[in-house]
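Subject: for your reference before the review

Hello V.,

The reviewers asked for a structural picture of the protein, and I figured it would be easier to keep everything in one thread rather than splitting it across files. Below is the amino acid sequence we used in the manuscript, unchanged from the supplementary table.
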Amino acid sequence: VGLWFASGFYTVQPGEESALRALGRFQTITGPGLHWFWPSPIGNRDIVSVDEVRRLEIGVRGNTEVPVESTMITGDQNLVDVQLLVQFNIKDLESFLYRSVDPAGITIKDAAETSLRQVVGQRDIDDVLTTEKEAVQVDTKLKLQELLDIYQTGINVTEVKLLDVSPPEQVQDAFDDVVRAREDKDRIINLADAYREGQLPVARA
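And here is what came back from the structure prediction:
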């Protein structure tokens, strides 16, 4: 009995939390330090690193692309390949462990992909490829956090970052030509403006 009683002592390290259950029913959360709780089979404890920053990739796994995730349609009915990195930690251990199914796995993956597709689907392809990448990241993070809160996952999204945004491989050359043409246009306009600024003072004089 003494050994069984002593086995109830446990230590929670900094950055960790412990969720305690008695007879299968959730009781409370304990933070870092030395604690005691009813040993098994009466009590159970789940110690989890809540400060650890976890990663999720959409559209890519390491160096391998996953087209079924990355290919999506834009607001002007074009296709674009988008690869996304999500970083997150745990803000509510009770919800993370007991109120959703696989929150750090399939749940956040589906929520992230859904959020990204909604945000990209509201913009033209030129905006997604060039001027509004930052806005896509911000809006995706807000949408993703909203979904995770609705699902009671207990997850806090710390960062959403676009790894790569590009046209599908089949039309990459055509899009590159468009980008080069746009750059040439801007360069010629800048040269014309510089010439004007040099000639106007002479004309006025």
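For the response letter, the relevant points are probably these. Residues 17 and 75 are 43 Å apart (CA to CA). The radius of gyration is 26 Å.

Happy to draft the paragraph if you're swamped.

O.
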